[in-house]
Amino acid sequence: MGNLPSERVNPTSPFNNAGVDFAGPFHITPSTKRRGSLIKVYLAVFICFVTKAMHLEVVSDLSSAAFIACLKRFFARRGKSAKLFSDNATNFVGANTELKKLYELVRNPDEELGDYLSSEQVSWKFIPARSPNFGGLWEGGVKTIKYYLRRTIANANLTYEEFLTIVVQIEGIVNSRPISPLSSDPNDFRALTPGHFLIGRPLNALPEPELLEIKENRLSRWQLTTKIVQNIWHRWQKDYLSNLQNRTKWFFQKDNVSKDDLVLIKDDNLPPCKWGLGRIAKIIKGADGKERVAILKTPTGTIKRGVNKLCVLPMNE
């Protein structure tokens, strides 16, 4: 495998080098007071090359003015990017017509958008035609957002405020994921997250009652948005932890976990942005000599879990 591009490995501020992709359209309603025609909106997904943090912006239409407003909001909150990377429009053979227009706007900017990019000294680069593998970093982010939004929003007919709230909470959930231990101290249970690079500490969510088992016709509009976010959290957390567990073919023997490793503990009852973390204090092997059970030190005490319920952090393997 070749070396990563310099934009991926050289230390820099978050989102100084970022990939951008688009998802949609999603349909929202202008108001809950009366029935009206649904409005199409789109998502701009920004992925930081260095920290892998995600930033989501809602784009109201396919005009240059709407996209410039999206970039201004992004730069105001995350800082101006030196380089933005995106897919070549020819990669989207199967994309719908509206989304193609948005890509074409970026690929061939009109005078208004071109002047804005030039005045801000932002370099926009495109991956080679018909080579979507060059954009795997942001493609994964778009896939995540589209997959869970489509399956949880369904026919909810959300307003703009409700949709925006859900999108921003999803951004917080994704940026709360642990990626590496903060130290090698066996008594330190903290993990580095993309949120540390954005606000200097882990991202947290307000504690709210569990609403997954309550029928939607018994919920208020804002309780419905909470239920959607909780549904996305439980689905995404489960899939993310499963992806961290190595299931490659056994070409050579490899230990599952080691003493003092900081690991994620699978738990279906945790609220959004809350992750179970622990240090391995002792490993218990089975009759075959393989690691089967681990005794863990956590911030609240000592627990015992099967190795299949533990996930080594992605940058600690």
UniProtKB/TrEMBL annotation:
PROSITE patterns: INTEGRASE. It comes from the Eukaryota. Residues 10-202 form the Integrase catalytic domain. GO terms for molecular function: nucleic acid binding. InterPro entries: DUF5641, Integrase_cat-core, RNaseH-like_sf, RNaseH_sf. SUPFAM superfamilies: Ribonuclease H-like. One of its GO terms (biological process) is DNA integration. This is Integrase catalytic domain-containing protein. It comes from Araneus ventricosus (Orbweaver spider).
